[in-house]
Design a protein that fits this description.
Blueprint: E1 15-27, E2 32-43, E3 47-54, E4 58-65, E5 71-73, E6 75-82, E7 86-97, E8 102-110, E9 118-121, E10 133-136, E11 157-166, E12 170-173, E13 176-183, E14 186-197, E15 204-207, E16 210-213, E17 218-222, H1 227-233, H2 237-247, E18 256-260, E19 269-270, E20 275-278, H3 291-298, E21 307-308, H4 315-333, H5 335-356, H6 381-397, H7 400-414, E22 418-419, H8 421-435, H9 440-445, H10 448-452, H11 470-482, H12 501-513, H13 519-529, H14 537-549, H15 556-565, H16 569-581, H17 586-596, H18 602-611
Parallel strand pairs: 1-11, 17-18, 18-20, 21-22
Antiparallel strand pairs: 1-2, 2-8, 3-7, 4-5, 4-8, 6-7, 9-10, 10-15, 11-14, 12-15, 13-14, 16-17, 19-20
Length: about 625
Amino acid sequence: MFEVDPNSLANLDQIATEHVHLDLDVDFAGKKLVGTARFRLVAVTSTQEVVLDTAHLNIKAARLVQSDGSPTALEVDTSTVHDIYGTALRIQLPALVATGDKLEIEIDYETSPNSSAIQFLTPEQTLGKSHPYLFTQCEEIHARSLLPCQDSPSVKISYSASIRAPKPLTALMSALATGSRDDGDSTVFSFEQQTTIPSYLIALVVGNLASATISDRCAVWSEPENIDACAWEFAEMETILQTAEDVVSPYLWGRYDLLVLPPSFPFGGMENPCLTFVTPTLLAGDRSLTDVIAHEIAHSWSGNLVTAKNWEHFWLNEGWTTFFERKIVGRLNGEDARQLSCVIGEADLVESIQFYGKDSPLTALVPKLDNVDPDDAYSTVPYDKGAHLLYYLEQALGGPAVFEPYMRSYIKAFQGQSISTYDWKNHLLSYFADNDPAKLELLDSMEWDKWLTAPGMPPVSNQYDGRPQEACLALADRWLKAIDDSSYDQFSPADIEGFSTMQRVIFLSRLADNAPLQADTLRAVDRTYQLTGYRNCEVRFGWLALALKSNYMAVVDAVIDMLSTQGRMKFTRPLYRLLHACPDGRELAVKTFLRLRDFYHPICARMVEKDLEL
């Protein structure tokens, strides 16, 4: 274990990776990738050892590539195993390398079916039912089960790849496609990512894929059976991207494509460069959930260009991105939409802190993660507590006119780098010392320890505009008052027709805050607004969560249906927890999960196992 990153076994303080080339064959029958990774490395200090992170990899051979191209076999040691962080691949070099020396190493390896980064789907698990499918998800520390690497965001690399996939399947990566060629029953796809990225942003998908062009630099990809619906739902991608450029700076990644994955994808979206992965739960049929796209586009600057040095500083990725996302949403849909998003984020933050406990160190903005799996620390805390801090700073320092030039300076100063919270803070103070020294008194007076390292809610509350939520809160309060005499006839579907998705979620959250509600009240709510079969997943989840908090088991079939048809952790984990907490739902929750475990992505399955204490 080394000092740079508590969640990596690599010797990050001695060796740095500059470039990786992957040459891999896709083996669907064996549920594995087989091939070679070639690394261009530079010595940070003198050393005679290269240590890489691995997990569930079969290392076959390693060799040093001499300047004339000739190989020299290298000894490898895989005896160092960590319960959380996998296996250290120790490679002994034939001679000491000095600081600044460069070297190339090739490693022959294959993944295993136990790789937490890769999910292989059978044809039956796809829309088309005819071809297998695979996709990867490397965040946070799963890239080490895709390839041996320095699996730390402190290391930013360029990469290239040749992926051999069986016909008629298509391979895509978080890189620009540079060509393809026939090779018997296979096609070899080539890729190049020249902008440096951390290992967790290496991504691969192989499947029966079709695309639809949105603009010169944007396209949507999905299975052919779904492509028209996806193209319609995300037709505003270029507009969102242009708005993001207006908020931050020009987009530097060339293409911005979007891949709609099968329903087992465990996140709302993943900001893989050039090819964002998204969940099909965003297909609401009314373009109402594209704020997720704004979030993933915003990552093109915060997270992908400016990257957290390690997972303890994850808020630099997600807090900034959430802040940027809400600015983008505000410019597209008005300030009311931004304020509603802030309100929902605050409620999500409260819920996360209640889940972990207000004194849990994992609720600090900058938690300590020694001997902690970063997946176990994953919550809305870095998103919403981070965005809360940035919103506070913006308001306190003089509003957008003052803060937006600073945030652009921040991105410009650190793009291409991996930084810590303290790098961010020092730049903040330096920027205002140079541009507006009068603001330093306020910044110096902030209780930074409470903001950054103390657990629980932020030390200062933000004052958001309450007007956009007045109507939905008033409707919820009318329902709560109607409980006294069961006067439910006063309500009609027209009550929520003018509400945005966020307002409908706030309405349901207000009711949930007063759970448990009576069965007759919940029957009336569902009868009036037809929530059980609601297409919009955010609204349907809000309704099912309210019902389960009230032990209203009339919705159990709908709960099982939602658990069976998508694997997004935002919905899946809380639904299992809530069902498990119902007196009549505990056994059903366990039985359902055991039946569906292989449907879920390995990351999701592992987290639900922990939630259900299996």
